[in-house]
Design a protein that fits this description.
The protein is an alpha/beta fold. Among the domains are: about 15-45; about 100-205 and about 290-430, Rossmann fold, CATH 3.40.50.1110. The chain contains 14 helices and nine strands. The strands form three sheets. Strands 6-5-7-8-9 form a five-stranded parallel β-sheet, sandwiched between helices. A two-stranded antiparallel sheet has the order 1-2. Strands 3-4 form a two-stranded antiparallel sheet. A hairpin with a 3-residue loop joins β1 (about 65) and β2 (about 70-75). α3 (about 120-125) packs across α14. The longest helix has about 30 residues, at about 250-280. It is globular, with a radius of gyration of 25 Å. About 40% of the residues are buried.
């Protein structure tokens, strides 16, 4: 006899409907959580840009040692950099730029060279139209085509800016204006990437890692595992950049969580390799003229002096070639009272115990003071650490001093105004090219 109390199983259609409802509810909750964790549209756009960069393999694997500049991007393998909606290729000189390194002066163009690290480079991309618009308002520059030459690369620090300019000039490149936007890499990176690893502060960032020999059988397997994790990370990002629901914040949050885990694994393997090199010792080829500092103050003094001398030598090169020179100390969130911070911006971009931030807090006042000395010696130095002092809207996107598109446009406008204050350079006023 059939049990009348026994429930009939749900039909396939009802089960599918129930599953769809549960899944839809899950997606709604996930999207809400992701909006809270990721933030507004600018932060989401930056996250998508980061996905594209990792998917494209824009990492250390695409860099190559350069005999004069430390390193550049390898045009043989680097696919270019996806920044926001723009794709910037790598030119044949190894710089991320839409044009070639060597440009020639002409009466109808203004050639502006951009020196610095990632902040300078990102400003030149997000702020390119702003630079053109503001410069184009000048009576002296109306009708001229603004040509940007990007000599900036992420991680560059002095004297790489100085040497990049010298290298470009040696190749026959010509410039009307040189803009150097720097400060953070010079102060924050050497103590962490160089001197703490037994490498001279003079050398390019993390020189020991860039010259690391993975052929050592004692660390070969670790090196292989590190490369394997990097490959998985790239494939994971590539899958997300090509999926149908690319604009889903929820799915991007899932990507972010796993990417962070993969990055952590990669860092662990890299640390094992670095520890091996640290324990086994380094020769001059890697360490250079290493100085072991007994206190932070002395190290900061040497870093500031290197930064200052590098700028003075850039000025000398510019004067010799009738080039206007503008030196900008970049804004940074770790400079006290430099920007009003909302709760979310402060939470996501200010790490109280971050060593780089502590270096900025101690070192930037020294850079500002050294910049005043540069100014008194005839260099067009601009302290722009207070550029965002009245900006309530969010500017910073991470804890390493990078800006969103608004911040880059604001910096570009300030830089353009600084250029106009220095234009034309005295020696160029009577040049036939102008």
């Amino acid at each position: 006899m059939e049990n009348s109390g026994q429930r009939r199983p749900l039909s396939l259609a009802k089960r599918l409907l129930f599953t769809a409802l549960v899944f839809s509810l899950f997606l709604i909750v996930l999207e809400g959580l992701a909006y809270w964790k990721i933030g507004g549209q600018r932060q989401f756009a930056w996250l998508q840009t980061r996905q594209a960069e990792i998917a494209a393999g824009s990492s250390e694997a695409s860099e190559v040692i350069h005999p004069y500049l430390g390193w550049v991007l390898n045009p043989d393998v680097h696919p270019g950099i996806q920044h926001g909606r723009r794709h910037i290729p790598v030119n044949r000189s190894g710089f991320a730029d839409t044009g070639e390194l060597v440009q020639r002066r002409a009466a109808d163009r203004l050639i502006v060279g951009i020196l610095g690290g990632s902040v300078a480079w990102q400003m030149s991309v997000d702020g390119e139209q702003t630079l053109r618009r503001v410069l184009g308002r000048s009576d002296d520059l109306q009708g001229k085509r603004i040509v940007l030459v990007r000599l900036a690369l992420s991680g560059f620090k002095q004297p790489q800016q100085l040497l990049s300019l010298a290298y470009a000039l040696l190749l026959g490149g010509e410039f009307d204006v040189i803009v150097n936007v720097d400060g953070y890499n010079e102060i924050a990176l050497p103590p962490l990437d160089n001197t703490s690893n037994g490498v001279s502060y003079l050398y390019p960032r993390a020189w020991h890692a860039r010259t690391m020999e993975l052929s050592d059988p004692r660390i070969g397997s670790v090196g292989f595992r590190a490369l394997e994790v990097k490959s998985i990370r790239q494939e994971w990002a590539h899958w997300f950049t090509n999926m149908p629901f690319r604009n889903s914040r929820g799915l991007s949050l899932i990507w972010k969580w796993r990417d962070a885990a993969l990055h952590s694994q990669s860092q662990q393997f890299t640390e094992l390799i670095l520890n091996h090199k640290r324990d086994s010792g380094r020769g001059f080829q890697i360490a250079g003229p290493f100085v072991k500092y007994s206190n932070t103050e002395r190290e900061l003094q040497d870093l500031v002096q290197l930064w200052q001398r590098s700028s003075m030598n850039i000025q000398a090169l510019c004067q010799a070639n009738q080039i206007a020179y503008v030196h900008v100390l970049q804004p940074n969130q770790y400079v006290p009272d430099s920007k009003p911070m909302g709760r979310l911006e402060r939470k996501e971009t200010v790490v109280v115990d971050q060593e780089e931030g502590q270096g900025v807090a101690r070192g930037f006042p020294m850079l500002i003071e050294a910049g005043r000395a540069l100014r008194s010696n005839g260099i067009a130095f601009y302290d722009m650490t207070g550029l965002f002092a009245k900006t309530e809207e969010r500017i910073y996107i991470d804890s390493w001093c990078h800006f969103n598109a608004l911040g880059n446009r604001m910096l570009a406008e300030a830089v353009a105004r600084a250029i106009l204050e220095q234009w034309p350079p005295p020696a160029a006023a009577h040049s036939t090219a102008h």
